[in-house]
Design goal:
The protein contains 9 helices and 5 strands. The chain is of the alpha/beta class. It has one domain: 3-Layer(aba) Sandwich (Rossmann fold). Strands 2-3-1-4-5 form a 5-stranded parallel sheet, with helices on both faces. The chain is globular and about 40 Å long. Bound molecules: adenosine-5'-diphosphate. The site of adenosine-5'-diphosphate has 18 residues, from α2 and α3.
Length: 189
């Protein structure tokens, strides 16, 4: 059973690595970004609420994404493990996740922080060209990351559950490092 949380700046490779881990371990990658983008595309009430935050590089309100994750983690599809990609992104989200996992009486194996230098990140995202991958929106997302998400690194490090992985390498090299790490990981209590 593998339960892992991926954190790191936008463009650090969480999505790509999440997909590879999903295939390798046969467990779902749960990505709040993917869920929100699908909602925007389908113009659901959630999508209509999330759209302007996403387009400007800001975070969708905590209460919205926490609700999404509560639903997904309690679904049948998540019963054999999961990879969280893009959640949590703030300290309140991390606290809500801890509370939910305690309620469900489960824990995660580890939190993996993928990192890469800002200039590499900007180049990767410009090459990707998603709707929110325009240079000024990218810069805003990086700023939001430093302000709101980077504090999670200390939050998880203090719990002893953080593993840092250099994301500034080819995807297959990063993937090999992650698989090796997860095989040896013990769940945190
Ligand atoms: P990236 O990792 O490239 O920034 P994501 O797909 O994870 O892309 O997220 C895209 C956007 O979706 C974010 O900029 C934000 O607006 C919104 N989003 C995704 N996850 C969260 C979250 N956990 N909390 C708040 N907003 C989120």
């Amino acid at each position: 059973m593998v339960r892992v949380i991926l954190v790191g700046p936008p463009g650090s490779g969480k999505g790509t690595q999440g997909e590879l881990l999903q295939a390798a371990f046969g467990i779902p990658k749960i990505s709040t970004g993917d869920i929100l983008r699908a909602a925007v595309r389908d113009e659901t009430p959630l999508g209509l609420e999330a759209k302007h935050y996403m387009e400007s590089g800001n975070l969708v309100p905590d209460s919205v994404v926490i609700g999404l994750i509560e639903e997904r983690l309690q679904s049948e599809a998540a019963s054999d493990g999961w990879i969280l990609d893009g959640f949590p992104r703030t300290i309140p989200q991390a606290e809500a996740l801890d509370a939910l996992l305690a309620k469900l009486n489960i824990s995660y194996d580890c939190v993996i922080c993928l990192d890469a230098p800002d200039e590499e990140i900007v180049q990767r995202m410009l090459a990707r060209g998603r709707d929110d991958d325009k240079e000024e929106v990218i810069r805003e997302r990086l700023k939001v990351y430093r302000d709101k998400t980077a504090p999670l690194i200390e939050f998880y490090d203090r719990k002893g559950s953080l593993q840092a992985v250099n994301g500034n390498r080819p995807p297959e090299v990063v993937s090999a490092a992650l698989k090796e790490l997860l095989q040896f990981e013990q769940p945190v209590s």
